[in-house]
Amino acid sequence: MNVITKKQRRNRHYRTCAHFTAAIITAVGLSGCFLFDDGTKQGFTIDGVYDGDTNTKVGNCSPTVLNNNLHYIQDSVSFKQLPDAGSLRMRMPGNCFSANTRSGWNRFDFVSPTVTDWNAAKGYSYTVKTNITGITVQSLLKVRKANGDIKMKLDSGSEPAFIPLSPLFQWRQIQFVRPAAEAGEVVLAVHVRVFLSQSALIYTSPDAVIQLDQVVEVN
Fold it and tell me: Could you tell me which of 9, 111, 112, 168 has the fewest CB atoms within 10 Å of its CB?
């Protein structure tokens, strides 16, 4: 994927909701738009911290503390004149992570609220950036199958399953291509999974962050 600037990603119009302002999105209830431009986290939460791709919790921070580290922010001063220049920022203090995982990785998820109108979606896109090395992301879609089972679906496109975030300090756009939907499948939520290498823990501090923006449905 190409590295793009904040201005360039604001001008991408192929995605659902890209023409609407945050006020319009809120007013009409377009749940396929998470542009983070209304001064809130728009229902996003953090799930973690886990040992790699297991369900073994290893973090020293409670879910409440983790979610208190998730903030809406106004983006850099060069864009402050825009009405739609916000994003989410997850602070990654070192005491929330473990240096002794079996996998060598710490993992947490950015989790969207329940989406109500994504069943016809072909996928979704988002932009992300970080200021520390050793960060890898994975895009997932949480669905409920016809028999009631909950499943995390992986990207079916050409993008690798695990995407290292580099270069640092620059926005990167990532697109999730949805696998063929099964009969009766219902889309529940977006999960942007973040893996932090144990070797990167020496860099974590209150200043270590990862930012998420423009999580939007692709039709």
Answer: 168
Task: Give CA–CA dist 8/3, Å, rounded.
Answer: 10
Question: Which residues have C-beta within 8 Å of that of residue 179, sequence separation ≥ 6?
Answer: 153, 154, 155, 156
The string of pLDDT tens digits covering residues 91-109 is: 887 788 888 899 999 999 9
E strands present in the chain = 33-34, 45-51, 70-74, 86-91, 105-111, 123-130, 135-144, 150-154, 163-164, 172-177, 186-197, 209-218
Query: How far is it between the farthest Cα atoms of the chain?
Result: 50
Where residue 15 falls among pLDDT bands split at 50, 70, 90? Answer: very low
State which amino acid sits at residue 38.
D
CA atoms of 73 and 85, how far apart (whole Å): 9
Tokens of 19: 């023409």
- Dihedral over Cα of 212, 124, 22, 63: its sign: negative
Domains detected in the chain: 6-212 (2.60.120.260)
162-188 pLDDT, tens per residue?
A: 999 989 988 999 999 999 999 999 999
Residue closest to 97 by CA, chosen among 169, 184, 26, 200: 200
Q: What radius of gyration do the chain's Cα atoms show?
A: 17
